[in-house]
Design a protein that fits this description.
Order of helices and strands: HHHEEHEHHHHHHHHH
Number of strands: 3
Helix content: 55-70%
Number of domains: 2
Number of helices: 13
Radius of gyration: 35 Å
Structural class: mainly alpha
Strand content: under 5%
Largest sheet: 3 strands, mixed
Distance between the termini: 116 Å
């Protein structure tokens, strides 16, 4: 008899005991995928209420590997205990979770990159004596989630440097990895203020404006420095020409004429036009 059939047959007091006992944690592998939130979860819960649980919850290492949203919906609706099934022996838990979620959920590229980044950095609770779960490289994770390897690398950097609120916005797909890459350069206290996607976009806009102004200022500074250098060279040249004119005027005149000619050839000097009398 399944857990669902047991629930139907058991007296109310027994059902209450079963509901209290059937508490599951979510497996860390499953948690790399975002949970349903807001209206999406409300619609999902409404479907569960109308059609009941269609697929059993998959359990691995005593935790929910697949079915977190179904479990949450059933808890909210008072439909515990629910039907569960263990992960089939020999099945790769990472591949199973990715396959189930990618085909079931409509995840955008940013969400898939964030998932791949988490999977490629996943270890057994920090135990260095054990290999990473699935032993996924950035390349393998990118292929599994159908995103570019560069996107995975950028997502890993963002998830490492970003504050929790920015991480959440990236994982939910509300903020693109490219935008998050800009805001993680901000101090942590500034990042913590960016609690919505619109605030992140405004911060990115301001960062780009500040960068443009800094580059413009730097360019103007370079031009000013160059102008000062040219003034110094001109003063030195004039002093040398004066010295030459004092000794050999004809040589000085020829040198000035040659200088003017070369400036004209370089399109740096135009002979001024004479005004009509």
């Amino acid at each position: 008899m399944s857990t669902l059939e047991t629930n139907k047959a058991a007296p109310a007091s027994t059902v209450g005991d079963l509901q209290r006992k059937q508490e599951y944690e979510f497996h860390p592998i499953a948690n790399v995928f975002p949970l349903m939130m807001g209206d999406e979860f409300k619609r999902f819960k409404k479907d569960i209420k109308s059609n009941k649980l269609r697929e059993p919850i998959v359990i691995y290492d005593g935790k929910i590997l697949d079915g977190r949203n179904r479990y949450n919906a059933c808890k909210d609706l008072g439909l515990l205990p629910i039907e569960t099934t263990p992960l089939p022996a020999g099945t790769d838990p990472v591949a199973f979770v990715v396959s189930a979620n990618v085909h079931r959920r409509h995840l955008n590229e940013t969400q898939r990159a964030a998932v791949a980044a988490q999977l490629s950095a996943f270890t057994h609770g920090g135990d260095r004596s054990k290999a990473p779960i699935g032993a996924l490289t950035d390349k393998a994770a990118a292929k599994l989630l159908n995103v570019g390897e560069r996107s995975v690398e950028r997502a890993k950097a963002v998830l490492k440097e970003a504050t929790p609120n920015i991480q959440a916005l990236v994982k939910s797909g509300e903020v693109a990895v490219s935008a998050a890459t800009e805001v993680v350069k901000l101090p942590k206290e500034k990042q913590a203020e960016l609690t919505t996607a619109s605030k992140v976009r405004e911060a990115v806009k301001q960062a780009k404006q500040a960068k443009g102004e800094a580059e413009k200022k730097a360019a103007e500074g370079d031009t000013s420095k160059l102008s000062d250098e040219i003034d110094g060279l001109m003063d030195s040249l004039i002093d040398k020409l004066k010295e030459m004119k004092a000794k050999k005027p004809e040589n000085a005149d020829a040198t000035v004429a040659e200088l003017v000619r070369r400036l004209q050839v370089a399109d740096l000097y135009t002979e001024p036009t004479k005004k009509a009398a």
